[in-house]
Specification:
The strands form 2 sheets. Strands 1-4-5-9-8-7-6 form a 7-stranded mixed sheet, sandwiched between helices. A two-stranded antiparallel ribbon has the order 2-3. By secondary structure, the protein is an alpha+beta fold.
Length: 342
Amino acid sequence: MTLQEFLDRIAKVEDRATSLIAAADSSAALEAARTSLVGRKSGELSALIKELPSLSADERPEAGAAVNLLKMAIDDALNARASDLASLDRIASSVDLTMPARRMWKGGKHPVTLVIEEIEDIFRELGFTIALGPEAETEWYNFGALNFPSDHPAMDMHDTLYLEDGVLLRTHTSPVQIRTLQNYKPPIRILAPGNVYRRDFFDASHAPVFSQIEGLAVDEGVSFVDLKATLTRFANRFFGATRTRFRPSYFPFTEPSAEMDVECGLCKGSGCPACKNTGWSEIVGSGMVHPSVLQASGVDSERYTGWAFGMGPGRMAMQRYGIPDIRILYDSDMRFLEQLAG
């Protein structure tokens, strides 16, 4: 036998060892593979060792080294496979096959996400486009451009979360309106959804971080009549046959301003903690865009007028799904969320 023939036989034993060890699915099968490969009497590797004397004295060192390397590799593979089988045996012995299978939970969208998507669909039908902006804003975009006086309470650190260098976490999505007015010429109709941040107490109707949706329409001849008609149309689409009301209000960035309420869907007007015992749920703050806001954005306030509104999808989700406390939306309680996922 030549050295090359000997090395070829070693390669064949190596291939066979790999397949035998991998196929062993029990301790008995692994022991059979060990006997077949390295057994003293009938092992294939043992048979090769017995043929070493048939090689020349110069060839034996290289052949012997190859045999030793293969033997160590086979031993390591056998030990590793034995460890794997032992782990599988432990797992199998700890599994109770008589236990019922776990109920599979089907994922779904969060109720606030469902409300946001429905609102977006309604306003798309009315000709609005979705616009987004950064959540970390400058003080000018968040307050200055929106006609907030320098001593307004909302600018105090007790109400707004400030970062560094005049940057803050936006308290509303109104900065998206300013950025849109700066980058596009009227006519404009946008819907600006996103998260906002305020240092509010976490109670039944308030959260320090929540989703907000604002809308803006700017064009020639736009009036408050258009605003009221659009919001009434939206309320009828979203809430169905429900009572609504407009009442005067005040915002620095709109004049005149109004709040739109819908009858509380939880108590049907009798009063509950979610509606602060008024029987009404405030869903939209609105008004005609203040001329100072248009001018700060580079829009001719003598030629164009506009109106804007803002709403909280979280409160609307409470109305839609009969949720008495807004904090439930933030608990991530699967028992509650899976009811909507289905």
